[in-house]
């Protein structure tokens, strides 16, 4: 099949590369010439494990090409995937649909024969129906230019696996022909018995925001429990583990700590709440504002904990911040809790030295006032306090004794519950984590 993928950011580049590896002829399209040049020369413009190797494979097969020409895309493709971003609007909580609208508006005049345009971007419910109308109006093919919705559930850091072997596929369609085209496009995925849900456009749009809202709710739920633990001396880590044994609850996305960030969950729950209000059903998802509130409080509370462990003031203190990316195995710093905390500590008068295995360059560009180091131990040299903000494996493997040898004070705040408190405490560290008692429960027992 001849496919085009419009927008070669995280989602689009991964989709284009994987579709070519799975045997389709693929044309990646973007308005950003430098991105297109990089991809065409075999470089993935962001950090994603496994993707560079697949890009090389796809380019070598001759089935993957890149262009900035929408005319070429219209000519080439039978199915066009829209993978452009839908960030939060600068002055409201609504999604900014500029790029989605532009992709359809610019592509449509080049659709001269029957073609399927498939939205993958995360959009407010009702967008697809509006875009379908725009397509019919602007495409020379008229009703032959059809719209479908196929939301994407890939996670950064696992993008290749999530694309090649997703949990499920969702096809929002308005005709049997559109469903057939999608089944053809995803044939190699469907051949692995991946379940597919065929539905209407609006349900397909909703599946995505409902899924991300549920995930955000789960994270904020356990972080709300952490607040209760903090007030009672209970241990949220043990609580989460005990809850996870119940299959109905499950342990995934129940990791307490600094909370969620990134380019998806925060803006998606806000856009969903905004859209629901527009539709007159804001009350139904009013709890999402609470979920957002709990999540924001985690950042402030982490700063408080650092201040507390420093004796009530961080002014003039040296803080080693381990992590900048919004999560491990990613160089994405969009709405990164780690950098938010680092900035707040700097604003409170601390000297903050940041280290991240992948996101240093982008962090340095976005936060030039922070200081940067090229290793965790280097960042910790002379530190009054170490704060773990992104749970990279590299940080879990640090020997408490090795870090003790370089810091000024053995104080650590584990913002991600990534370290073993007993190991750090026995090496002489004062270990603190949100929602965990200052002294381990067993030690408390022994003291009685
Ligand atoms: C999220 C969804 O998980 C994907 O299914 C979805 O496709 C994607 O958004 C999207 O809409 O494009 P992603 O943003 O890559 O994926 O990251 P997640 O793995 O969901 O993590 C989000 C944030 O939650 C991170 O900051 C992570 O540290 C935090 N998190 C996650 C927790 O604080 N606790 C947990 O238990 C899990």
From TrEMBL:
NAD(+) binds at residues 30, 35, 86, 122, 156, 267, 334. Substrate binds at residues 153-156, 208, 253-257, 261, 327. Pathway: Nucleotide-sugar biosynthesis; UDP-alpha-D-glucuronate biosynthesis; UDP-alpha-D-glucuronate from UDP-alpha-D-glucose: step 1/1. The keyword Transcription regulation does not apply. It catalyses: UDP-alpha-D-glucose + 2 NAD(+) + H2O = UDP-alpha-D-glucuronate + 2 NADH + 3 H(+). The keyword NAD applies. Residues 320-421 form the UDP-glucose/GDP-mannose dehydrogenase C-terminal domain. It is an enzyme of class 1 (oxidoreductase). The active site is at residue 264. GO terms for molecular function: NAD binding; UDP-glucose 6-dehydrogenase activity. Its EC number is 1.1.1.22. One of its GO terms (biological process) is UDP-glucuronate biosynthetic process. Coiled coil: none annotated. Belongs to the UDP-glucose/GDP-mannose dehydrogenase family. PANTHER family: UDP-GLUCOSE 6-DEHYDROGENASE TUAD (PTHR43750:SF3). This is UDP-glucose 6-dehydrogenase.
């Amino acid at each position: 099949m001849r496919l085009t993928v419009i927008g070669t950011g995280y989602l689009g580049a991964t989709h284009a590369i994987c579709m070519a590896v799975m045997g389709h002829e693929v044309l990646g399209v973007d308005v950003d010439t430098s991105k297109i040049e990089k991809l065409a020369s075999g470089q993935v413009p962001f950090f994603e494990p496994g993707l560079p190797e697949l890009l090389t494979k796809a380019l070598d097969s001759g089935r993957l090409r890149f262009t900035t020409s929408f005319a070429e895309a219209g000519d080439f493709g039978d199915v066009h995937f829209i993978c452009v971003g839908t960030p939060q609007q600068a002055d409201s909580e609504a999604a900014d649909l500029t790029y989605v609208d532009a992709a359809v508006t610019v592509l449509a005049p080049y659709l001269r024969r029957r073609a399927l345009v498939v939205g993958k971007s995360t959009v407010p419910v009702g967008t697809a129906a509006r875009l379908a109308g725009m397509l019919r109006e602007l495409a020379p093919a008229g009703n032959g230019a059809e719209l479908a919705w196929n939301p994407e559930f890939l996670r950064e850091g696992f993008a290749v696996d999530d694309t090649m072997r997703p949990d499920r596929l969702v096809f929002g369609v308005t005709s049997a022909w559109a469903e057939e085209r999608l089944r053809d496009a995803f044939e190699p995925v469907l051949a692995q018995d991946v379940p597919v849900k065929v539905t209407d456009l609006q349900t397909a749009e909703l599946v995505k925001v409902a899924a991300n809202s549920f995930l955000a709710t789960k994270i904020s739920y356990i972080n709300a429990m952490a607040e209760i633990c903090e007030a009672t001396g209970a241990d949220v880590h043990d609580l989460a583990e005990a809850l996870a044994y119940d299959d109905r609850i499950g342990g995934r996305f129940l990791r307490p700590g600094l909370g969620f960030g990134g380019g998806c969950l925060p803006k998606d729950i806000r856009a969903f709440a905004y859209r629901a209000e527009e539709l007159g059903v804001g009350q139904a998802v009013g709890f999402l504002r609470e979920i957002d509130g709990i999540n924001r409080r985690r950042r402030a509370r982490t700063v408080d904990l650092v201040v507390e462990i420093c004796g009530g003031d961080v002014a003039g203190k040296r803080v080693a911040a381990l992590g900048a990316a919004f999560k491990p195995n990613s160089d994405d710093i969009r709405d990164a809790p780690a950098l938010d905390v680092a900035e707040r500590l700097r604003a409170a008068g601390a000297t903050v030295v940041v280290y991240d295995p992948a996101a240093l360059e982008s962090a340095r560009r976005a936060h030039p006032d922070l200081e940067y180091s090229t290793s965790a131990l280097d960042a910790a040299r002379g530190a009054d306090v170490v704060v773990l903000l992104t749970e990279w494996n590299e940080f879990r493997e640090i020997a408490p004794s090795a870090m003790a040898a370089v810091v000024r004070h053995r104080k650590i705040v584990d913002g991600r519950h990534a370290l073993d408190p007993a190991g750090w405490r026995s090496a002489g560290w004062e270990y603190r984590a949100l929602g965990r008692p200052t002294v381990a429960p067993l030690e408390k027992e022994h003291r009685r």
